[in-house]
Amino acid sequence: MHIHNYEKIWLVLAMIMIVGFLTTVTYGATAVGIEMISDEEDTIDPGALDEDPRFAEPRVEQVGENEYEAYVVAQQYIFSPDPIEVPANSTVTFYVTSPDVIHGFQVAGTNANTMVIPGEVAKLTVETEEPGEHGIVCNEYCGSGHHVMEGKLIIHPEDEFEMEDDE
Amino acid sequence: MSSAIESGEPTFLDRFPQEAKVVRSALWSSFIALTLGALFGIIQTLHRTDVLRVFSSGNYYTILTAHGVLMVVSFTIFFLVGIYTWAVVRSLDRPVEDIRYTWTWYGLMVLGTLMALVAILGGFIDSIDISADVLFTFYAPLQAHPLFYGGLAIFLIGTWLAGADWFRSWYAWKQENPGERIPLQTFMVLITMLMWYIASIGITIAVVIFLLPWSLGIIDQVNPLLTRTLFWFWGHPVVYFWLMPAYLLWYTVLPKVSGGRLFSDPLARVVFVLFLLLSTPVGIHHQYLDPGIADGFKFIALTNTMFLLLPSLLTAFTVVASMEHGARQRGGTGLLGWLRALPWANPAFTGMALAGLMFAAGGFSGMINAGLNINYLVHNTLWVPGHFHLTVGTAVALTFMAATYWLWPQLTNKPIFSRPIALAQVILWFVGMALMSNAMHVAGLIGIPRRTAEPQYDGFDFIPTFGSIAELDLQLVVGGTLLTLSAILFVSNLVLSISLPKVSGLGQPLPPALSGPDDAPKVLDNLKLWTAIALVLVILAYTLPLASIVDRGGLFGPGGTPYPTMIEFGSTLLEIYTPLTTDWISGWLQ
């Protein structure tokens, strides 16, 4: 088969670019430690979330010195708890599930983003930085009231943050 | 340019009048879908930007479903079956084996479309229990009326029978031409259809085994992650089902309208074989953010996706090289000076060239989507529709419209009503999409979600990194309006052409490639081999993820809640239906 020289060069450059993309993604996943949504959480009965120790009462819990876990239920058309309140400069792991249809959970404008699928628990860990307020949006169509489904993530200054349980 | 239009050659209509009628019918179906799709498109644009709200925000999703289904299923696939029938008949130079069979698959596709459309448009009427507000992806537990799933199944059967029609023509041709290379256009058609048959496995299982019985109330629940994964098994290759007819036109028609010849026939074959191999085992890249799928499987999808860039990058080379060859044949010189020698006044050329340019931009935003970890920033934001309005919405749609200006006279023996309007039309589409898609990409980066009626929330505001939300909305509205105007100009230009008198000699024969099929290794035409490898790749990419999903959640679990609740309809139907059948059977037995 005759391949023109220019076309050979193009082919080689294209392959280099493809391998380059794969390398950067792998680097991000391993060296930088961008964690993927995966399958490490067990499935859950979406019809019995009210009996589940984590989701019966959606809440934020402190699990380590600077570590928090947020158990979040996304359902037509609210997020609970709302707002989600955590301190700055901490590690927060979100566990998100749905009792009804598929939803999205994205801290608007950030890469804290996951699908929420009934029967599955999405786990994602973020590092909070500066204090502030962020919107949370459902970014998957979930029914006729989808556009009103929003929540709020409030990141408090560390010295002003207190868990309600401790009060 | 008029000398180029009247070549004195017989047209496709002169040579194959019956087939030309089928092709025209398929293209009209496609353009009717385009018109309706454009109408729903502009309603959405004005609603989202809060310029004009004709419907309630609840009905927005009915409109969005109709826009999506009409554009990416009806418009694209009716065009595909039209252009592929033309390509097979033309390149094998023989009529279809049985024109009644050809009309049968066309009829099934129309029937399926109408069924699905009734189900979707039922969403506007609250008093009846029919709706399909499930968007193009119909993710369970969102539930549509059984007419929607049934219509989709019948439409798909129509496309499978169409493929069988083309295989039948090729088989008959092969008996009469033993040992000859498959003509390039027929080769492209057959490879596309092999990919389509493999891809269809996913959606067939999803619809026939799970969603249709579920919508009828025969089964109580489905596994939402499983049906979603089966959807994307089909949902990514369908992207190539839109693109491959555009590629066929870029490889075989664009060199002709540029005034030259295709650069390389063998590489065109390689590109199509790569699509067959790599289009399907990548669907999980739409599910990077799905819980319940291991990150290892996502990594496999990522790797396959990145290699799937290769055939598109090769196409970019060949298309530009063929255009340059055409320009130099027309007297163009210089490193870039040849660009001026291209036939920019010809809407067929300009449309396809602009479509190719937009495809390059769409390709780059696609590479970002494909990047496993960058994807987290843009997943389900407005960035994503920004991306696919460049690919399917421009690379494909604009190529189809431009190619129509070239092909339509050969199907009707009438020139296009107005070439200046046609030229303005393709440029309007390009400008409109540049504005709209740019705004969508920028909005996506600040987190504005896709698929929502009102991206204005009570508790917070989106903060653009530059410019303002008002500017982005303005771009969306102006872009959307130009696109609607462009669609209207396109369809009216064709409708007005009907009244023109017939002329003869509008045929446009296609020249052979510079490097012809004899330079291509014979193995490229071994369809069985490529199909077998494609199947192995699909099995490798999908067996473990699917097994794991079923193992975790069960075939029919873990449920969720169907929305909207239509189980009652299904069980009522069954209650009526079951005694009737039993009565009928017992009556018949007596």
TrEMBL record, chain A:
It is found in: Cell envelope. The chain crosses the membrane at residues 9-29. Residues 65-167 form the Cytochrome oxidase subunit II copper A binding domain. It holds the Pfam family COX2. Gene3D superfamilies: Cupredoxins - blue copper proteins. It comes from the Archaea. Keywords: Copper, Membrane, Metal-binding, Transmembrane, Transmembrane helix. The keyword Transmembrane helix applies. One of its GO terms (molecular function) is cytochrome-c oxidase activity. GO terms for cellular component: membrane. This is Cytochrome c oxidase subunit II. It comes from Natronocalculus amylovorans.
TrEMBL record, chain B:
GO terms for cellular component: membrane. Residues 27-524 form the Cytochrome oxidase subunit I profile domain. It is found in: Membrane. It holds the Pfam family COX1. Keywords: Electron transport, Heme, Iron, Membrane, Metal-binding, Respiratory chain, Transmembrane, Transmembrane helix, Transport. The keyword Iron applies. The chain crosses the membrane at residues 25-43, 63-89, 101-125, 145-167, 187-211, 231-254, 266-284, 299-323, 344-368, 388-408, 420-448, 474-496, 529-550. Belongs to the heme-copper respiratory oxidase family. This is B(O/a)3-type cytochrome-c oxidase subunit 1. The lineage of its organism: Archaea, Methanobacteriati, Methanobacteriota, Stenosarchaea group, Halobacteria.
